[in-house]
Structures are given as C-alpha cells and as structure tokens.
Design goal:
With about 260 residues, the chain is of the alpha/beta class. The chain has one domain: Protocatechuate 4,5-dioxygenase, Chain B, CATH 3.40.830. It is about 30% helix and about 20% strand. The strands form two sheets. It has a six-stranded mixed β-sheet, with helices on both faces. A two-stranded parallel sheet has the order 3-4. The chain is globular, with a radius of gyration of 17 Å.
Length: about 260
C-alpha cells in the first residue's frame, strides 16, 4: 500500500520533555498532530526515511547504523534533555536501497555508520512512535541547499513509497529565530504560509514555484537560511502527481507553521 510523504514541523529543541515550552499549552496542537500521525497512515510503515534539517553533507548521505545512538544537537536546555533515549533500530537495508535509487538517478550518495539520531528526527518521531519500534534511517540535506537538487532527490526516492517506507521531511515552514513572537514575524509567517498552502495543492506548478521560493511573498524573511524548508523539497519530489494537503496548521511561538502531506 502506497505510503504518503509528509513534511512536518519538529518544533523547538527537545520541547516534548519540557514543561510549558513556549508558554502553557503552546505545543499541545503539535503534540496531538504528531501523536495521531501513525493512525492516519494507510498501514504501519515498514520503515521511516527522515530527511532532517539538522544534517548537511557534500552529497546526500544516509545513516546506515543498525543501532543508531543519540545526537543532542541543541544547547542551553536542562541536563535531563541530554540523557533522552529513542532507541529505534536503524536499517542498513533501507539505507542501501536509498543509495541504490539515488545512484540509478545519477545522484552520487554516501552513507554514515556513526551518526546518531539528531533532534530533527528523534524529537517529532518520539511523539509519533514512542515505542521506537519502526526502523528509521536519516537522510542529509546537500550543502548549498539547492531546491531543484532536493526535488530531484525526492523524485529518485519515490519508489520507496510503494515499498512501505514513509518519507518524512522534518523542518519548520517558518524558521526565523529573530522573528518568533514579534509582530513582523507573525505577519511574515502568515503571508508565507498562505503562499505555501496554495502552491503545494497544485501539482502543475509547485515544483517550479518551490524552486523559486525566494521570490515568494515573505519567503526570505521566513527563512533567512533555508535548511528548515529544504526537507519539503525532497518530500515534494517524492509526491509524484499527488495533490498536497495541510493536515496541520497552527501557531507556534506566535507564528503560523504548517505540515504538508502528499497522498
């Protein structure tokens, strides 16, 4: 059964383990969306491929460890958040399949057998799969953050959807650290989110529009650096002709953020 392909907001730092992160109830809707995600799928995934905003490499690189460790790639949080565990197994076989598909498309790829789960992966997926029972592989972004290149990566990985693999892009549809909880940030996030909502629903023009996302209203203001937007490009490339929907839209830290799903 074909899996959807989904771009999710992962929130800030290790928020699920912090009391009232962003204010009382601020993360409740995101927690509810992520917790309900497995039940909304057509079948339990055989594996998850997570394209994380928190890993950039010279070529697309997959984590290939059978038992990945943890990578606490945040700072300034309480001590207990550096002892968290999400012991999902890796999948060297899925990692090899990712490299095979990329190679068949003429895209050189690499693997990393040492990298642990970064917070772009373990934070949202621990809410969705708290039992850590689904094999999970991470995929890096490519340095330079070229949107067309990441759309191409997604197109190459499209067959995974028919192989039971859930492709998840983990980022934030608004990511300007200086804009959260400011009047300008609120405005920019709403404007960019409206553009994004329109674009992802239209298979005819979305690839071209996303390639030129910096021309979008409030695009650069919403993403001064685009690493948290680029996982959407991979997810969109894997979408084929599927129309997009927005299963989650809400306000986090005063600004509008959305999830995007194809299929």
């Amino acid at each position: 059964m074909r899996m959807p392909t989904i771009y999710i907001p992962h929130g800030g730092g290790p928020w699920p383990w912090l009391k009232d992160f962003g204010g009382p109830g601020a993360m409740d809707s995101l927690r509810a969306y992520l917790a309900a995600l497995p039940a909304a799928l057509p079948a339990p995934p055989a594996a998850i491929l997570c394209v994380t905003a928190h890993w950039e490499a010279a070529t697309p690189t997959v984590s290939a460890a059978a038992r990945p460790g943890m990578l606490y790639d945040y700072s300034g949080f309480p001590a207990h958040t550096y002892q968290l565990s999400w012991p999902a197994p890796g999948s060297p076989a899925v990692a090899a399949r990712v490299r095979e598909l990329l190679g068949a498309a003429g895209i050189a790829a690499a693997e990393d057998t040492e990298r642990g789960y970064d917070h772009g992966t373990f934070v949202p997926l621990a809410v969705s799969w708290p039992d850590a029972d689904v094999p999970t592989v991470q995929l890096s972004l490519v340095r330079g953050l070229d949107p067309a290149a990441h759309l191409r990566i997604g197109r190459a990985l499209r067959p995974l959807r028919d192989e039971g693999v859930l492709i998840v892009g983990s980022g934030m549809s608004y990511h300007n650290m200086g804009g959260y909880n400011t009047a300008r940030g609120v405005r920019d996030a709403m404007i960019f989110d409206a553009w994004l909502s329109d674009v992802v629903r239209d298979p005819e023009r979305r690839d071209d529009a996303l390639t030129r996302w910096r021309e979008a209203p409030s695009g650069p203001a919403s993403h001064p650096r685009e690493e948290h937007l680029l996982p959407l490009m991979v997810v969109t490339g894997a979408a084929g002709d599927d129309a997009g929907s927005l299963p989650y839209q809400d306000t986090i830290l005063g600004t509008r953020v959305s999830a995007v799903q194809y299929g």
